[in-house]
Amino acid sequence: MNNVKKKKKTVNRYTVVIVIMFIIFSAIVGRLIYLQIFKYDDYTDRANTSSRRLVTEKAPRGKIYDSQGNLLATNKQVYTLTFTQTDDSSKSFYTTMKQVFKLLDENNDSQQDTLNLKINDKGEPYFDFNVSSDDSKRALEIRFKRDRGMNDDIKNKLFKGKQELTDDDESKIDEELIKISAKDTFYYMVKFYQMYDMLNPTTDERKTYKSLSGQEITEMLLKKFSINDLRRYMLVKDAIKMQSFSGFKPVTIAANIKKDTASIFYQKLTSLPGVDVALEPMRYYPYGQYNLASSVIGYVASIDSSKKDRYEERGYDVSTDVIGKAGIESAFESVLKGNTGGTTIKVDSQGRKTEELFDLEPSPGENVHLSIDKNIQYSAEKALQERMDYVKTQVNDPQYKISKNFNTTRGAAVAIEAKTGRVLAMVSNPGFDANIFSEPGKLTPDLSKQFFAPDYEAYGKMIISKYNLNKTVDELFPKDANGNRQDKYDLYPKPFYNYATMGLIPPGSTFKPLTSLAALEEGVVTPNETLYGKKYFDIHPDVFGSWAPADEHEYGIVDLKRALAVSCNFYYYEMGYRMYVKNGSDTKALDSIAKYAWQLGMGTDPKSNQKGSTGIEIGENFGQTYNYEYFKSQTLYYSRFELVDALSKGAYGSYNFLPLDIEAKDDDDDKLKETKQQIKDLVVNFIKGSSGGKLSFNDFNTKLKNLLDDLQSNSKVFDDRIKAYNATGRKYSHGAVIDAIDQFIYDKNGAVNTPAELVNASIGQGINNFSLVQLASYISTIANGGTRYKVHLVDQVTDNSGKVVKEYKPEVLGKINIKPETLNAIKQGMYIVNNGTDEGTARAHFVGFPIPTAGKTGTATYNTNEEDYGRSDYSVYVSFAPVDDPQIVVAVVMYDGYQGNMGAPVARAIYETYFRDQIKQQFPSYQPMFDYTLNPPLEDVKDDNLK
């Protein structure tokens, strides 16, 4: 049998390929089966979720009306350009934005700019946070840098690997953050937002750019782009970043664009990935151009990043929502704020809507109806501005160094109903156009600086030159420890400071009706009793010694009515003295006027723990009248500073001594700090009486000497001064210092416990300081016979359908019993002020006015050397009408207004408008003092005629 050797069969390469392909396709098919069958529901949900977007729809804020239904604050629909970040839109971001910016520029529409990192005229970055407080600026700057992750680098350097940071650690990070300049912040953001992508880099180039510093990248970009161009792209990038904290939402590129511009963008949307046009409500103030009631209404603005958490908890979208920042807009924020709605939609790869899934309608905020009458408000605003301009340019009095040029740039006026407390007009000058803050692009860098970062140095130079002051800028606007200038003498006009509710002013002689009431009710005088009004109040040397305050004139025989009419200081000095004697001539008697003032809302009893308020709904400062406890506390508070100043200078009164090292310094050791504090405490507590009952003057002086020995031992500065003094051949002792401090204590005790301040207070001087609203309220209480009403600005709140949600009716805060003869005497005296034949400090301004009015002028001193600092007297005026049945009360103040009667024409303008219908009907031939009062020029703006 032949053995045939079988040939071994080889594997065909094609078979191998087929097998491999079979395996691959089997795996693919298996995966597809798994994904499309077994995981179908899961991946369907994921796909649906990723293509769904919630598009929020802003709710319009509630409206603000005046008492006649005129719109003071409303909303208008505006076109807004938005950008939605998707994979597709991100890839073409710079190309898209370049086209967007070009279209906006060609149509003269502005890009929205809310970034606090600005570029100045020199092309340098700087921070602008729209706040005036240095502490607020610091806090906002830190928040700005933290929001953009700048704290992470510092954290890694200082506390690398540390998981939980303490408050101390965070403070150290903040200290480092605040050191980073605006320029370095700009560099950081250029790199942080990978803005080198503007150069369309390759993959390798991107790796190179990532290793460069922010400054290097910026310098490279500046070869092709301007710094303002870089910032335009940065605005959008930063908005996307900040928006990401609130979830996926479109960011605003430009708001309030023109309709024609919106149409152009609509036509080009297909070539602009991520870009869309929407309609949104924008806050609008129809009378904004007139600054009408701006201090009352307030304004809206975006939410500060420092308050982000607080508002997010309340349901706000901090990246897009605005809030009330002042006035009614702020006080009634929870009422005016609407509830945001939204639509859940499906979007394509470019972020545009393909299908609408769910819709939640936004609900508008509720409406606030004010007691303000826009016509009375306008007359008050215009008349006040005219009078301020008059005083600035027309007044000329040789006794003033600043003749014919007073710095009358601040003022206020208030008109309220005498029998309800309703505010009919409230003016604070200067005001502002609230539309500047709600309409994008209106708040220019120059305006922002003027409002929130005034150039005190330039203003100081202007004041010095204009008024020929012998002062330096450092004296007018001294620098604080951080080198920032402070408006120490209240010279700069502040648009956002409500001078009607926040400014505390000395009332001057407008306080005399109150002193009249107290004196008559106390029975120390009768309405018809007369005395001789001398120039100097020198008739009680047994009580006042040689102290004799002076009046401008000697008025001769006066009773209460004439004393009010001519504003005789001597008469009221005597009233203050008589009440002091009648009530016991002790410290309790020093409250003789205060106990009436408190009932009229002019301060509160310090012992009562009562919170002082007029009831006004917006922010207010509540002033205090002179009283023993308050004056004592103020004296003790300021005595520390006076003591330190005197001891540091080495002089007090007639005593001269070696200057002490008494001022607290950062480099003092603990022993020296304690010694300095013990000296101050010993003196102040002795004046206060807390140690006076235990220490005799001898014991006090012994303890003081020991502390001065300690100061010499612990203070090298003081010890060196003593050695230098002794080197002259003289022998230093503490005797002169102790004698000076003893005199200081004697003087302060004398000031606190003698009736001199009561006498001062009787004419509205001294420490008496009140808001203009307080003055109006107190005059109203007297005018209506003794009922003190809550001062209020809001009549009611309504919902979107007009239904009343809440109504605010007149509310009584207190009552004071006033005898008819007291009330009659005060009214007669105040009537003569405005209508006297030969006398009356405001009579020249009411000639020919047909409605009987009453008034009182007040010329209140800022300080004894006010003219040296560009200041002059406050012009204060109060009034009511008609005299027999008062309906309306007016109070006016002009800072540096020269004389009290200067504000009287403002009251007349208000009266001409308030009584215009009566005047036209009963006095048809009457010629008004102002051409805008009887026929108010402002058109009504109602819901149905708003354009």
TrEMBL record:
Domain Penicillin-binding protein dimerisation: from-to ranges: 57-356
Gene Ontology cellular component annotations, sorted alphabetically: plasma membrane
Cellular compartments annotated: Cell membrane; Membrane
Regions crossing the membrane: 12-34
GO MF annotation list: penicillin binding; peptidoglycan L,D-transpeptidase activity
Gene Ontology biological process terms in this record: cell wall organization; peptidoglycan biosynthetic process; regulation of cell shape
Keyword Transmembrane helix belongs to the record: yes
Keyword line: Cell membrane, Cell shape, Cell wall biogenesis/degradation, Membrane, Peptidoglycan synthesis, Transmembrane, Transmembrane helix
Bilayer topology term: Single-pass membrane protein
Family annotation (InterPro entries): Beta-lactam/transpept, Beta-lactam/transpept-like, PBP_dimer, PBP_dimer_sf, PCN-bd_Tpept
Keyword RNA-binding assigned: no
Segments forming domain Penicillin-binding protein transpeptidase: 411-678, 747-911
Classification via Pfam families: PBP_dimer (PF03717), Transpeptidase (PF00905)
Assigned protein family: Belongs to the transpeptidase family.
Protein name per UniProt: Peptidoglycan D,D-transpeptidase MrdA
Organism, scientific name: Clostridium fungisolvens
